[in-house]
Amino acid sequence: MKYLVTGGCGFIGCNLVRFLLENRAGASVRILDALTYAGSLDNLGAAAEDARVEFIQGDICDAEAVRRAMGGCEGVIHLAAESHVDRSIFGAEAAVRTNFEGTFRVLEAAREVGIERFLHVSTDEVYGAAEGVSFDENAPLLARNPYSASKAGADTMARAYWITYGLPVLITRPANNYGPYQYPEKLVPLFVYKALRDEPLPVYGDGMQVRDWLHVDDHCRAMLAVLERGEPGEAYNIPAHNERPNLQTIRLILHELGKPESLITYVEDRPGHDVRYSMTGEKLAALGWRPEVDWEAGMRASVRWFAEHLDWLEASYARGKAFFEQWYRNR
Ligand code: NAD
Ligand code: TYD
User: Fold this and answer.
1) Which of 4, 82, 141, 293 has the maximal Cβ count within 10 Å?
2) Which of 3, 147, 193, 277 is labelled catalytic?
3) Homologous superfamily (CATH) for 187-211+243-274+294-323
4) Does residue 124 carry a catalytic annotation?
5) Angle, CA 34 vertex, CA 28 and CA 38 arms, to 5°
6) pLDDT tens digits, residue range 33-49?
């Protein structure tokens, strides 16, 4: 099958491209990516030179570029997004533009081209905070920050393209991912970067917010399970069943690096901070998927990966420096 992967040079995208090449004989991949601060051709490594991979630099908000990139493809995996909550709080425009308008452009081109399978990657954050509950796929979308609101809009538009036009859209709502190549604005790689430099780790609020940690390899297998065996028009949660308070994750990072807990520094909380994400996963389990990566082993291996790829970590961090300086100035 020939796939268009939008956002294929980002964290999840580059892992997915590798996964497709290694696990799907006959797959070829065209990547459409704007190479924002979050994306880099370096993330693709040897895959960038693979004859089965074609790279097109372009913006998903550019209707003509998207149409051209999609021509000849049978499947679409739509990952391109402004993916960071803090950036969307600092300024919501980029998230609204890429996540909502961009998704509309990708859906519209898919309809014109007659795509056979369209996987829209949404997020567990569209449900809002899971206080005392675990959401199933029928829970209302009650997003609470600009990132998750823009993703909720995109999720709803994707569903509308199935209902209105019959575009065979499948929607996934994955939990927090972790693993190699995650951009160091997200908790795990950012805190590895800072801990390695003996800098304070800015923990928002009391650090007791709960996230469900999904290894990116488990996520890749889940995406393909849904793309290949899911029902068009349906949404599928991708939980990891690894819910941890942030402080537990942070202590594990410090322990793996041999750094002291005195680096933990409590700072002003994120506005509208969702205290917990939690989902049920029966629909995906019925497709035969189970998470395979153990939380502690997977997290420790990821921390080591960042520590062993210092050049990558530093070059990636440098691309986002202007934002970090402003966001963390008073934190
Ligand atoms: P990322 O920020 O690491 O990568 C995003 C990629 O999209 C980058 O390569 C970037 O260059 C590209 N991009 C951004 N704007 C673009 C535009 N206008 N046109 C074309 N390309 C553009 O993100 P990620 O963590 O890999 O997330 C991928 C998807 O998965 C996103 O849709 C995100 O909402 C979703 N998701 C991520 C997580 C997570 O924990 N990382 C969890 C749930 C859902
Ligand atoms: P993040 O990696 O930004 O993912 P998301 O907000 O999409 O879940 O954050 C994960 C958790 O870590 C979240 O509860 C916010 C917290 N966090 C901090 O405490 N300090 C930080 O500097 C960052 C980036 C995150």
Assistant:
1) 4
2) 147
3) UDP-galactose 4-epimerase, domain 1 (3.90.25.10)
4) yes
5) 100
6) 999 999 999 999 999 99
